[in-house]
Amino acid sequence: MSLLTFTPNGLYCPQADVYIDPWRPVKKALITHGHADHSRWGHQYYLCTESAMPVIKYRLGKINVTTVAFGETRTVNGVTFQFFPAGHILGSAQIRVAYKGEVWVVSGDYKLEDDGLAEAFEPVPCHTFITESTFGLPVYKWESQEKVFESINKWWAANKAAGKYTILTAYALGKAQRILRHLDHSIGPILTHAAVENTNEVIRQQGIDLPATVPVASHFDPKIHQGGIVIAPPSALGSAWIKPFKNASSGVASGWMNLRGARRRRSVDRGFVLSDHADWEGLNQTIKATGAERVFVTHGYTDIFRRWLVDQGLEAHEVKTEYSGELAEMNEEPSTSAADNKDEAL
C-alpha cells in the first residue's frame, strides 16, 4: 500500500486516514494554504499552520480547525506529519509525511523568492515529491521582485503626474498584500477593493504590518484621492465598480504577463511579471534540493514538465487534480457565503 495515493476525493494517506488538500468533503483534511483550490468548505476537521488559519476561517466560515507550528510533529497511527514553509503566501506550507523510513513531501503551491511577507521557502529532503508546475516551461523566468516593484512605483508616479489614477489588479489573498508591502507609500494614497481590504484586515489582526489603505466602498473621495493607486482583483476590470475612476491607467500583476500578448488580451495598459509560484528554474532547483527519486506533477504544465523530469533521469508521473494554480488566482473571487454554514460534528 502506497504511503500516499490519489483518489476521487483527493490526496489520501490510508495508514493515517487523512487527506491533504482534498477537493471533496472528507473527515480529516490537512490544508497547505488558504487559496480556494486547496482549501475547501465541508470537511469535518481541518489542520493547517497557525498563520494560515485566520484567512482560512474568514473564507470558509465556521469550521473545526486546529493549527500546527512550522516544524511541529503530529503523529497519526504511526505516520508523522510536519508542515514546512512553502513561501507561496502567508502561512502556506509543504507537508512532510513519513512512515517506517519512507518520506513524501506535498508541496502545495510554492515560490523560492522571499517576498518579506510569507514565511520563506525551505527545501525538505524526501524520497517522493509531489509538486505543482504552474509555470513549468523554460520561458517562465522571473526578474527579482525589487526590479518589478521599481517598475510599478515608476508607473504609478508617472500616472499621478499625468493626473491619472493607477489601477493594479492582483489576487486578493497573497499577491495584493505582497504588493502593498512594496509600494512607495510616499507617491500617494493606496485605495482597495473590498475583497482586498477585507483580507487585509484579517492579516492585520494577526499582527502583520501592512500600510494604511483607503477602502473605496466607504472612503473614496475624488477630491482627496486623485492620483492614488487602486489594488483590486482582476474581476473588477470592466465592472461597474471601476466607473468612479474615469481617468485611469490599468495594469495586471501576474506570472502570465510573461507571455507575449497576455496584456493585450486582458485589455490593460501595463503587465507586470509577478507570481507567487516558482518559475522554471525554481521548480527544477527545488526538486534537486529535495533529493527525490520520484516526482508526481499535479497541476500546470504537467505533461511537459513530467517528460522533462524523466529526461533528467527521475521517475516522474503526471496526476490529474482539481488544483489550478495562478489560473484560479487570476479569476476567483473569495466567497463568504460559507460563513453561515455549520460544519459537521466529528
Structure characterization notes:
This protein is of the alpha/beta class and 346 residues long. It has 2 domains: 5-139 and 277-340, 4-Layer Sandwich (Metallo-beta-lactamase, Chain A), CATH 3.60.15; 145-272, Rossmann fold, CATH 3.40.50. Helices cover 23% and strands 25% of the residues. The protein has a 7-stranded mixed β-sheet with strand order 7-8-9-10-11-18-19, covered by helices on one side. It has a 6-stranded mixed β-sheet with strand order 1-2-3-4-5-6, with no helix packed on it. Strands 14-13-15-12-16-17 form a 6-stranded parallel β-sheet. A hairpin with a 2-residue loop joins β1 (5-7) and β2. Residues 328-346 have low confidence and may be disordered.
CATH architecture of the largest domain: 4-Layer Sandwich
Structural class: alpha/beta
Number of strands: 19
Q: What name does CATH use for the topology of the largest domain? A: Metallo-beta-lactamase, Chain A
Tell me the span between the first and last alpha carbons: 27 Å
Which descriptor suits the 3D outline? globular
How many domains would you count in the coordinates?
Answer: 2
Give the strand order of the largest sheet, numbering strands 1, 2, ... along the chain: 7-8-9-10-11-18-19
- CATH class of the largest domain equals Alpha Beta
Question: Strand-residue fraction?
Answer: 15-25%
What's the total helix number? Answer: 9
Q: CATH homologous superfamily of the largest domain?
A: Ribonuclease Z/Hydroxyacylglutathione hydrolase-like
How is the biggest beta sheet arranged?
A: 7 strands, mixed
What low-confidence regions span 5 or more consecutive residues with pLDDT below 50?
328-346
Q: Give helix and strand order, one letter per element, not per position.
A: EEEEEHEEEEEEHEHEHEHEEHEHEHEH
Q: Could you estimate the helical fraction of the residues in percent?
A: 10-25%
Mean pLDDT: 92
Query: Taking Cα atoms only, what radius of gyration do you get, to the nearest Å?
Result: 20 Å
